[in-house]
Amino acid sequence: MTATAEALNVWDQFLQYAKKNCSQAAYANWLAPISLIEVRPNEVELRVPNIFVKEYLLDNFRADLCAFLPVQASGNPSIKFVIEAPIKQEAKKVSEGGVDTPSSASPASSQSEFRGSTVPLNPAYIFSNFIEGPANQFVKSAAMGVAARPGKSYNPLFVHGGVGLGKTHLLHSIGHYVRSNFKDLRVQCITTEAFINDLVDNLRNKSVDQMKRYYRSLDVLLVDDIQFLQNRLNFEEEFCNTFEALINQGKQVVIASDKPPGQLKLSERMVARMEWGLVANVGVPDLETRVAILQYKAERKGLAIPSNVAFFIAEHVHANVRQLEGAINRLSAHSRLMNLEITEELVEQCLSEVLQAAPTERITVEHILKSVASVFQVRVTDLKGTARTKGIALARQVAMYLATSLMDESLVAIGNAFGGRAHSTILHAKAKIEELIGQQEMLRRQVDMARRNVAP
Ligand code: ADP
Ligand code: MG
After folding, report:
1. Is the torsion defined by CA of 318, 322, 323, 324 positive or negative?
2. Helix residue ranges per DSSP H, 182-278
């Protein structure tokens, strides 16, 4: 029996019930995107845009589903889920097909009366160029879900995270995907600052209605850097109205911000609206992901980076992806200009500023141990322990030596920080390393590197 063959099948009955028993927004965001494939006597088959919708349904409606739908022996509702095909492949085609440029924007005719200060989409910001790892997988899937079904999955999608972590990249990726796959949908990206400036101009020219019409005629509005709306009380209301108007018409809104909604200094109404749909965080990528991003970016620049060098950079440049890109650009320029092979030494030379850019807080033994451990490829716990294995003992002495030169503490205090070692042990280590670095060039370089990379 197909969905259309029976007027009120069990799934429709469930939907009717759910509609009355959850908020309009929850219904629109989570239940409306589900489509029925077939009702069978022992099972209902549903198509969901992604795994999150499935989980939401089961987490929030399990008991209700059991009341309406066939139930398995385990007591769970008997539902077969079909997850909509991932859009990765198509996103790739976008990048290769050359249609992924700002010029493929929505129809020009409707833009002619009002030209908002919209941002052209960066052609490089597409899904297939966005490297995922544990810290950004969820937000990427959410963005892809929204792109595949604008206005029908999470609305709004609110993406937040620190600077340089890929928020704008994801926003533009959604824009490109929609432009290439839904030709008749109008997509625009704006920065909050530009929106405010437009509003000011239009108020002056008494053309606010045109502006309102323009924004409200969009199908997908991507709003970057909403944090700039803070402390702009006069504009917040207009923003909120635009926003509600779009969402109420089932148009997609995606917002990027440096903080989660609750931490923005905005009205309760605005915060509540932004929390309506799905709030997703872009985190700082972990070491492996940073290495993957580095290697991906280097490859695209035709730069061969040995993996030890990639790890070295990724370990020391960890705040955000923009810095990683900066490191690659610099390295690429250096190695090309001087026709040099990329080695750790070259990295040290040309990235020393980047590597040293860490804020100068008080240095502790922990900072030193971390740096020494990474340069000498041992574990911090080994350095703190008493093992006398040659490599570990030497690295431990280097850490002690660095502590005497980098920390403004007495030998006794340093000895205590190294797990209660006598000050004579520290002194001995200092003398020993000073002697060795006079003899061994390799060790001297390692010690220098460890010294440079002590990051409080
Ligand atoms: P934000 O808007 O969060 O400040 P951006 O989106 O401008 O950050 O990202 C900064 C740079 O880092 C961009 O060039 C972007 O392409 C790149 N970037 C960020 N995250 C990733 C990622 N996961 N994979 C590949 N590139 C990334
Ligand atoms: Mg940004």
Report:
1. positive
2. 192-204, 208-216, 233-248, 268-274
Give me the amino acid identity at 65. Answer: L
Task: Count CA atoms closer than 13 A to 280's CA, side-chain side.
Answer: 29
Amino acid at 150: P
Q: Is the dihedral of CA 229, 235, 240, 245 positive or negative?
A: negative
167 CB under 6 A from ligand 1? Answer: yes
- Residue nearest atom 1 in ligand 1 by C-alpha distance: 164
CB-ligand 1 contact for 133 (6 Å cutoff)? no
Asked if 198 and 168 count as a contact pair (C-beta separation under 8 A), the reply is no
160 CB near ligand 1 (under 6 Å): no
* Beta carbon of 258 within 6 Å of any ligand 1 atom: no
Q: Residues 322-360: pLDDT tens digits?
A: 989 988 988 888 888 777 788 888 888 878 766 655 444
Would the pTM count as exceeding 0.90?
Answer: no
Cα 454 to middle of ligand 2, angstroms: 29
* Residues less than 5 Å from ion ligand 2, measured at CB: 167-168
Would you state the pLDDT for residue 38? Answer: 92
Query: 165 CA distance to ligand 1 centroid (A)?
Result: 5
pLDDT band at 413 (very low <50, low <70, confident <90, very high): confident
Q: Given the DSSP bridges, would you call strands 157-160 and 252-257 parallel, antiparallel or unpaired?
A: parallel
Q: Concatenated DSSP letters for 429-444?
A: HHHHHHHHHHH-HHHH
